[in-house]
Structure formats: C-alpha cells, structure tokens
Amino acid sequence: MSWSEAGEIAFIGPTGISVLSVADGTEEQFDFGSKRVRWPHWVPGERRLTFTDFTNWGSGSGVIGLLDVRSGERIDSLTVGFNSRVTSSGHLLWADKEGTLWAAPMDTDAGRLDGAPAAMLSDILVAPGREVRLTVAQSGDLAYVRADARTDLRLVVANEIGRAHV
Predict the structure, then answer these.
(1) Residue of 73, 63, 84, 83 lying closest to 111 (CA atoms)
(2) What is the DSSP letter of 153?
(3) Sites in the chain below the pLDDT cut of 70
C-alpha cells in the first residue's frame, strides 16, 4: 500500500492494483488479469506506480513494472527483483532474493532505467513472501531491517551513499 501526497492510496485489489481517492472515495481499478502483483509504490510526480509481478514465481523473484495511472499504460519489465520504489533523486531501488538492495537511475517520464544498476547494501532481511522492510525519506535517507534482525532487532538508517547509522 502506498499513499500519495495528493491523497490517493494505491493498494492490491481483487484483480490488480486499485487507486482510492481519499477526497471523494472514488476507486479506480487496473486489471492485471492472471498476473500476481504486489507492492505498488508511487513514483515522484504521482502519475505512476512501481509494482512487482510474481506471475513466474518459479524463479524465486519477481519482475518490476511501472503503471501510469492516468493512461493505464503498463511497462511490465523494468528489471528482475521485488519491492521497488523510486526515490526523489530519480533512482529505482529494489531488492533481490539474496538480500541485496539495488539502485539504478531512472527516466520516469520515458519509463525506463537510465543507467547501470549498482548494489547498495547486501544485508537486507528478505522475509517470507519476498517482503523486505524498508522505507525511503524525501531526503534520500533509507531505513531498513537487517538480515541478522531475527535475533537482533535494530533500526538501521542509511544515507544516499550507503553509509549506515544504527
């Protein structure tokens, strides 16, 4: 689930992604048919959402896509991974099944990656269902749950160059 600054909540609905207007209660549904999608997140500018498609779950990972909520256009294959989001600096962040957090510059208008991916962190906890617990502030600071958190729960905050603060 993701809440935009404009007051729209994106969430997983019965057949895809739904967007609910808090102001008037209207809901728009984007049907993905048989695709299994999760984790919609608003892209800065609030016209698009990233999502993860788990239709081909056999690989143990998902495919990150982009949905334009104004036109309904979908780009179904930005990269392999899951639980993605776009930062205010225009970087797509995503995790892989080994617990590595990746980043790549993104052209959000064109809907494509605009540079090579780089590994940012390698100690993200990947919970059952391929869920990672992380959040990114407008400033670019990142908070996440570390892989060793099963026994040692601590909040870790990392800045945009990957320096971690506990």
Answers:
(1) 73
(2) -
(3) 34, 56-60, 129, 149-166
pLDDT of residue 49: 94
Q: Look at strands 82-86 and 91-95 and give their pairing.
A: antiparallel
How high is the pLDDT of residue 126? 81
DSSP 8-state code for residue 141: -
Rounded CA-CA distance 162/108 in Å is: 23
Could you give the domains of the chain? 2-165 (2.120.10.30)
Helix (H, G, I), strand (E, B) or coil at 10: strand
Whole-number Å distance between alpha carbons of 133 and 146? 9
3-state SS, one letter per residue, for 32-96? CCCCCEEEEEECCCCCEEEEEECCCHHHCCCEEEEEECCCCCEEEEEEECEEEEECCCCEEEEEC
Half-sphere exposure of 84 (CA within 13 A, CB side): 34
Which pair of tokens denotes residue 149? 């958190």
Rounded to two decimals, what is the model's pTM?
0.83
100 CB contacts (<8 Å, ≥6 apart)?
119, 120, 121, 122, 124
C-alpha–C-alpha distance, residues 106 and 126, integer Å:
24
At residue 159, the pLDDT reads 64
- Which pLDDT score, from 0 to 100, does residue 81 have? 87
